[in-house]
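It would be a great kindness if you could assist me with a short task in structural biology. The matter concerns a single protein, recorded as an amino acid sequence and a row of backbone structure tokens. The record follows directly beneath this note:
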Amino acid sequence: MKTHDFYYDLPERLIAQTPIKDRTASRMLVLDKKTGRTLDRHFFDLPDFLSKGDVLVINNTRVIPARLLGVRSDTKSPVELLLLKRIDDTHWETLARPGKKVHEGKRFTFIDNVLEAECEKVLENGNRIIRFEFNGIWEEVLDKAGQVPLPPYIHEKLDDPERYQTVYSKDPGSAAAPTAGLHFTKELLAKIKDMGVEIAELTLHVGLGTFRPVKAEDIQDHEMHSEWYDFPKEASDIIRKARAEGRRIISVGTTSTRTLEAVASKDPDMMPQSGYTNIFIYPGYEFKCVNSLITNFHLPESTLIMLVSALAGRDHVLEAYKHAVESEYRFFSFGDAMFITDLEDRNA
């Protein structure tokens, strides 16, 4: 299967640059994964498509201020580091810009010497291992020195950084938000719980690799990035019981989906675990846990639209996207939502 098979034409004006005021007021395109039928709704209509006994799985990761703007200690020329993966208390794997200024042994300063760093290693993929030097608590220092990194297709400043966090975020570690969750409010979640829908929390720290384009002509030649996840006992207990009873597992976002499917692929019993996953889901994949998916609209030729196509079928997805473009839905991180499900598969 070719990467170009997942291309669609998107006018730039439909790429949402800012979030709307009311999280739940975003539009929601409901897609029947079996028939391809679509319904135009709003996110506050989500409870109409849920039933008692459903399990909603959310990713409680929190975006950290992973973008560091500083200068080389010797020349004072500007550098930018994007934190990708924490190695230990002082070392991070980072993306450096411009890379030609970040060589092994070079030192850098951030925010009036509050934070200093040295490049210890240049990896084969071009990323850098950076050792940081600071006084105090790392998280507090990072809050002062760093900025929340927005996706490259967003060009406007975000007035309220909390709008790039889900209302249930609590475990810091992501370089990007699990954006499907941005549509929820605490009030909507409470309403869903009152319906008898169970909510299971897991964690996957989203890396910037989620925005990496697929450059391979054949999608099977693409090397997927690796991300850390935690699948705790509470989530395991809820999901194992629901699966045994044939109840619907609804994943909020591609990150939750990748976590659930990675766990199910390693352990059919889905016992508690944590680790790294680089699972790549594309058409032909047989889902082992997830039945339905709440997600946003994704970039053409991306691994995310491939995952969605694996669940609902490429033809159904591309037709739905065509409808969304014609209906002027808002796309990507701050855009509108999709709910992909079998409209006939509802719990009693």
Remarks:
- The CA atoms of residues 114 and 123 lie 27 Å apart.
- The chain has a mean pLDDT of 95.
- Helices lie at 138-145, 186-194, 233-244, 254-266, 303-312, 314-326.
- The chain has two domains: 3-63+159-341, 67-147.
